[in-house]
Amino acid sequence: MSSLLSHFRDALQGFTSSSAALQVLRTIPNSSIISPPKTLYVLDSSFNPPTIAHLRLATSALDSTDSSSSSKRLLLLLAIQNADKAPKPASFEHRLVMMTLFAEDLLHSLPAKSASDGSIAVDIAITKHPYFIDKSKAIITSGIYQPDPATSGEPPIEQVHLIGYDTFIRLLNSKYYPPSHTLTPLQDMFEHHRLRVTYRGDDEWGGREEQDAYLQDLKDGKRDHEGGRKEWADRIQMVEGKKAGERVVSSTKVRKAAQAGNADSLEELCTEGVAKYILQEKLYTEQVAA
After folding, report:
1. Dist. CA 74–CA 114, nearest whole Å
2. Residue 210 CB: number of other CB atoms within 10 A?
3. Could you give the CA distance from residue 34 to residue 72 in angstroms, rounded to a whole number?
4. Is the dihedral of CA 175, 180, 182, 187 positive or negative?
5. What sign has the CA pseudo-torsion 75, 8, 80, 150?
6. pLDDT of 89-147, one tens digit each?
7. Can you give the pTM of this predicted structure?
């Protein structure tokens, strides 16, 4: 793992000094014959660390797609807008290693045929953009998945962003869109792309009915005064995040388990490769605020 850690450290330094807004650092499986995707599934997170909750988001989306699709592509995206400062509690290069291990564990968890025939690939990428809509635009203009639509005249490939309900709330909060502080900047994204929103099961976000009501308000036109559009609701799908009886998982719980040296909890909260790496590197063992 030391060579992979060094690779990502060098890649981060090069990316930080470049003019690029987004860069794919690794693709799993590493193959030159992976077909361009018709739909790109985007899991954008701090991955501090990757957890079983991330696994549920990804596998649920990949399992729900049309089995006749020629290829499925998942983009694991990490924003490094503060790469010139030491990120806490795990460095960006450690997170990228964990994202790689997570991607390998993810593919191993899928049906054998899907994981072995190259029909599913996972990209590990970084971006300098901190805001959601800017990340979406950077994916389009990067030229990674298709020629820039602005020059090619082709429509952008559809992005399906895999997010939790808490992120959904922030996305539709007009305070994040200065100077007008309206939701109008989201129009282009919803015109071409979709959201797959996972219900949050912890009490902080209310029950399923309350979370459904938030989306219904958009559909009923109650966000029109902020620039929200009723038709956006048709581009948003609410899905279950965990099955009955499964525990609520968060990165905070993982960090607390690591700090306590609780290997059993780590193995329940993370995929196998990630849990082993956290223990091996003694990550999150220092006292750090959640």
Report:
1. 13
2. 10
3. 10
4. negative
5. negative
6. 899 999 999 999 999 999 999 876 555 555 789 999 999 999 899 999 999 999 999 88
7. 0.91
